Amino acid sequence: MNQLNLSTKLVEQMHEFLIQHDENAQDPGVASQYMCAVVGCLLGKQTMPESEKEDVIQQLFEFTRHVTKDIAQQVNSPPPQAEVGIWKPGMG
After folding, report:
1. What's the gap between Cα 32 and its chain centre?
2. Which of 38, 69, 30, 39 is nearest to 57 (CA)?
3. Mean pLDDT over the full length of the chain
4. What SS3 class is residue 73?
5. 57 near 43, Cβ under 8 Å?
6. Nearest 5°: CA angle at 12, between 9 and 16?
7. Which residues, in sequence order, are CB contacts of 35 under 8 Å at separation 6+?
8. Are 56 and 43 in contact (CB under 8 A)?
């Protein structure tokens, strides 16, 4: 897979688009179901053996898990604190 250019703005815009389509998509769980269904529709149209589709689905599942954990870690980690130390001339 290629590198993605995922941003908070992109995610927010996609979520807002889904809400315009269905107000129930305000619920992140419903919005996530829509996104998964879109992936299923796109993958379902691909002409490839079912075993390859299953492999892609598994890779996407693992990728989703990785992104979920990464975002949760960012959200739950405390903000960085200023470091206190001794400065001496010549220190960068």
Report:
1. 10
2. 39
3. 89
4. helix
5. yes
6. 135
7. 14, 18
8. yes
> Is-contact 22 30, C-beta < 8 A?
yes
* Rounded CA separation 11/8 (Å): 5
- Per-residue pLDDT tens over the stretch 44-82: 999 999 999 999 999 999 999 999 999 999 888 776 666
Say how far apart CA 67 and CA 59 lie, in whole Å.
12
How would DSSP label each residue in 7-72?
-HHHHHHHHHHHHHH-GGGGSHHHHHHHHHHHHHHHHHTS-S-HHHHHHHHHHHHHHHHHHHHHHH
35 to each of 43, 51, 77, 78, 86, how far by Cα in Å? 12, 22, 27, 30, 51
The Cα 49–Cα 53 span in angstroms is 7
Mean pLDDT of 18-25: 98
